[in-house]
Amino acid sequence: MSHKLTMIIVKPGLQTTIQDLGRSGWQEFGVPVSGAMDRRSLRLANLLVGNAVNNPCLEITLLGPEILFDGNGLIAITGANLSPAINDHPIPLHLPIKIYAGDRLSFGKYINGCRSYLAVHGHWLSPRWLNSYSVVPYCDGFPSLPPYIKKNHHISIEYLRLPEKEITIEKQSIAESIIEVIPGPEFHEFSQESRSQFGNETFEITNQSNRMGYRLKEKLTGPLVTRSLISSGVVPGTIQVTHSGQMIILMADAQTTGGYPRIGVVRSADLDILGQKKPGDTIRFKLIHWT
User: Fold this and answer.
1) Do 136 and 245 fall into the same domain?
2) Would residue 107 count as lying in a domain?
3) How far apart are CA 96 and CA 47, in angstroms?
4) 194 and 146: one domain?
5) End position of a domain, from candidates 159, 187, 206
6) Domains held by the chain: number
7) In a 10 Å sphere around its CB, with 0-12 CB exposed, 13-18 middle and 19+ buried, how is residue 54 labelled?
């Protein structure tokens, strides 16, 4: 006999979306990868509740939602610490927690990180598109596409039985600020001054940053690549440099082609670190494959 649990969104929070590991393999058609900004935290949350690692989760950004549960179930929260509480009683991160019909999940004071991941055990009865539950950027309201989370949104989940064995994991650090990168296709066309600045200075993430890309405050000041470039393929983690010297790190919802010079590409694992950074945080780049 199957059981059903429904999450009712009382308040949606700042930016709460359904995400999984994205829709890889469709970039040639102009479809962004999307998916979790911190993929490691999403995987861990799902493991804690006995789900497959690619099961959808709620990605919760800085200001969390308020959620009413209709039914019993098992949840886990990983990633940023946004002071989660059930019925106003604080709950820990990185542990499976049983919830019951009528329970209310809320978030309070920001502690650290940027994005929390809420996993719920079971099969999510949410729309998929191209084999992914992740929201399609800038396509809110299109029929049959995964929906944006809004007030009074209902998310239903089915399961046969709750896991009997409790899983524990090591708490991950989200405070790292060193981002490892490999040189981009145009790396050697930048001046030595620009390359040195790129590898040795500290850069601040600006308010003009979102799931599509992070703009950095400090600009490269040395001679830049000035030749015209044809639009070429880019991936999440590509670091583009505009004509003014400003760097943009492409993130999960990034476009699939771009015409700016690419000075570097972030190591895949370090995209999870970036996913926990917010405007005002600083980072440094470390080149790991100098050619």
Assistant:
1) no
2) yes
3) 9
4) no
5) 159
6) 2
7) middle
In a domain, 27, yes or no: yes
Cβ atoms within 10 Å, residue 142: 11
Tell which residue, 22, 3, 39, 49, has the closest CA to residue 275: 39
274: containing domain = 178-287
Question: Is 28 part of any domain?
Answer: yes
Cα dihedral 273, 246, 233, 131, rounded to 10, equals: 40
Q: CA torsion angle for 38, 41, 47, 52 (degrees, to 10)?
A: -10
**Euclidean distance between CA atoms 286 and 181, whole angstroms:** 6
Dihedral angle sign, alpha carbons of residues 37, 40, 43, 48:
negative
Three-state SS letters, 104-170: EEEECCCCEEEEEEEEECCEECCCCECCECCCCCCCCCCCCCCCCCCCCCEEEEEECCCCCCCCCCC
Per-residue pLDDT in tens (0 to 9) along the chain, 291 residues: 789 999 999 999 999 999 999 998 888 888 999 999 999 999 999 999 999 999 999 999 999 999 999 999 999 999 999 999 999 999 999 999 999 999 999 999 999 999 999 999 999 999 999 999 999 988 877 777 888 899 999 999 999 888 877 776 766 677 789 999 999 999 999 999 999 999 999 999 999 999 999 999 999 987 788 777 788 889 999 999 998 999 999 999 999 998 899 999 999 999 999 999 999 999 999 999 755
Same domain flag for 118 and 24? yes
- Tell me the whole-structure pTM to 2 decimals: 0.94
Q: Sign of dihedral through CA atoms 4, 10, 12, 13?
A: negative
Q: Considering only CA atoms, which of 258, 274, 278, 257 is closest in space to residue 266?
A: 274
Structure token pair of residue 259: 């015409």
Q: Are 116 and 79 in contact (CB under 8 A)?
A: yes
Q: In this structure, what DSSP letter does residue 28 have?
A: G
